[in-house]
């Protein structure tokens, strides 16, 4: 840094501000210092910076999947949230494995991050203890809890599951199945809301829940870890949706609606209905979760629970930036809610009555 300062003809404090707080330096000085940095091929040493300032300037982010659009949207919000700051993002994939998440938390904390963002609330006891003692802001995302580690920004999966199921019941569906890939805690919350709504309407009955967890799917055996019994990767696919739907209609031949734990499964159900000549929504209602772009573009358009993934990621970084700057960071528990997107695939009342939706 001293070499850069001498080359640019400025003080070391100016170089430091250009690297850490560029908004405090004029554009002219930024240009002079950045030219010197490029000329000298200077790369800041984050480890040395961490030793000097106690924190590395890195936000550690743990997500359960790098292949799902859901978490790509979250990461987009996080990256946009650090624009114009000296904060850097470091991402790791837990692959829905609590022990892997625990290991990665230890890896991150040894690097003295400025903050941590973790998905969900189902950390192991040891992982939670480490985060509680991390000495930096910690934001849990994509879920809610009355007892967050530090702060939490997300939505209630149980409430969303209940409201979508209530919508299906309002449309006249009486035998509604719940289809899921791996039944993690967030999926279990959606299932719980679904079951509450059915029970309140007197429609709850056994044999309506189908998932990888309670189904024998031989062709997926090579994707299950023999050590943990969990998927080695997230493999909710349209093909899985089709297979789970086939099992659901065998278990309940009078089935008239399915609520899928995610949109990919819902798309698979639609494909299977087309193949079998099952009319949607007259004979079968289909609903998904997350409201990905293709849900509105499908024919018929597919109902879904809209989640605000980008906003969650962006809000997590905003709370961290406020805490690091010593500003009030707002409420510890932030519920961004969900929205029930009612489309043609569940619009049974209008279709059967001959009305336009």
At a glance:
The chain is α/β, with parallel strands linked by helices and 357 residues long.
Q: How would you characterize the overall build of this protein?
A:
The protein is elongated, with a radius of gyration of 24 Å. Helices cover 44% and strands 15% of the residues. The longest helix is centred in the middle third of the chain and has 16 residues, at 185-200. The N and C termini lie far apart (65 Å). 42% of the residues are buried. It has helices spanning 2-8, 12-20, 27-40, 46-53, 69-81, 98-110, 125-132, 157-170, 185-200, 238-251, 263-276, 294-297, 309-324, 348-353, and strands spanning 58-63, 88-93, 115-119, 138-141, 151-154, 176-180, 209-211, 257-260, 285-290, 303-307, 333-335, 338-341. By secondary structure, the protein is an alpha/beta fold. The strands form two sheets. The chain has a six-stranded parallel sheet with strand order 2-1-3-4-5-11, with helices on both faces. Helix 6 runs parallel beside helix 7 (125-132) and helix 10 packs across helix 11 (263-276). The protein is built from 14 helices and twelve strands.
Question: How would you summarize the topology of this molecule?
Answer:
Blueprint: H1 2-8, H2 12-20, H3 27-40, H4 46-53, E1 58-63, H5 69-81, E2 88-93, H6 98-110, E3 115-119, H7 125-132, E4 138-141, E5 151-154, H8 157-170, E6 176-180, H9 185-200, E7 209-211, H10 238-251, E8 257-260, H11 263-276, E9 285-290, H12 294-297, E10 303-307, H13 309-324, E11 333-335, E12 338-341, H14 348-353
Parallel strand pairs: 1-2, 1-3, 3-4, 4-5, 5-11, 6-7, 6-8, 8-9, 9-10
Antiparallel strand pairs: 10-12
Helix pairs in contact: 1-3, 5-13, 6-7, 8-9, 10-11
């Amino acid at each position: 840094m001293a070499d850069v300062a001498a080359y640019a003809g400025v003080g070391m404090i100016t170089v430091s501000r250009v690297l850490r707080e560029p908004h405090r330096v004029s554009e002219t000085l930024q240009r002079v210092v950045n030219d010197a940095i490029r000329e000298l091929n200077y790369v800041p040493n984050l480890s040395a910076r961490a030793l000097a300032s106690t924190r590395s300037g890195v936000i550690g982010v743990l997500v359960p999947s790098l292949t799902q659009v859901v978490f790509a949207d979250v990461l987009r919000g996080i990256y946009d949230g650090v624009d114009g700051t000296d904060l850097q993002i470091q991402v790791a994939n837990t692959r829905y494995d609590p022990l892997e998440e625990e290991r990665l938390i230890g890896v991150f904390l040894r690097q003295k991050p400025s903050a941590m963002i973790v998905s969900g609330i189902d950390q192991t006891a040891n992982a939670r203890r480490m985060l509680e003692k991390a000495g930096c802001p910690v934001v849990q995302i994509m879920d809610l809890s009355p007892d967050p580690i530090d702060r939490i920004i997300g939505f209630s999966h149980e409430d969303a599951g209940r409201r979508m199921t209530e919508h299906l019941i309002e449309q006249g569906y009486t035998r509604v199945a719940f289809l899921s890939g791996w039944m993690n805690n967030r999926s279990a919350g959606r299932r719980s809301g679904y079951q509450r709504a059915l029970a309140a309407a007197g429609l709850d009955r056994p044999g309506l829940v189908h998932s990888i967890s309670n189904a024998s799917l031989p062709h997926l055996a090579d994707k299950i870890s023999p050590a943990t019994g969990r998927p080695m990767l997230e493999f909710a696919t349209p093909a899985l949706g089709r297979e789970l739907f086939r099992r659901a209609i065998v278990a309940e031949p009078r089935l008239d609606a399915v609520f899928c734990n995610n949109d990919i499964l819902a798309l698979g159900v639609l494909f299977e209905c087309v193949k079998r000549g099952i009319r949607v929504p007259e004979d079968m209602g289909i609903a998904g979760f997350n409201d990905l772009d293709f849900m509105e573009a499908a024919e018929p358009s597919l109902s879904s629970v809209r989640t605000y993934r980008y906003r969650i990621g962006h809000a997590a970084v905003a709370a961290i930036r406020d805490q690091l700057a010593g500003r009030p960071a707002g409420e510890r528990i932030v519920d961004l809610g969900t929205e029930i997107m009612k489309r043609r695939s569940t619009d049974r009342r209008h279709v059967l009555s001959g009305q336009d939706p």
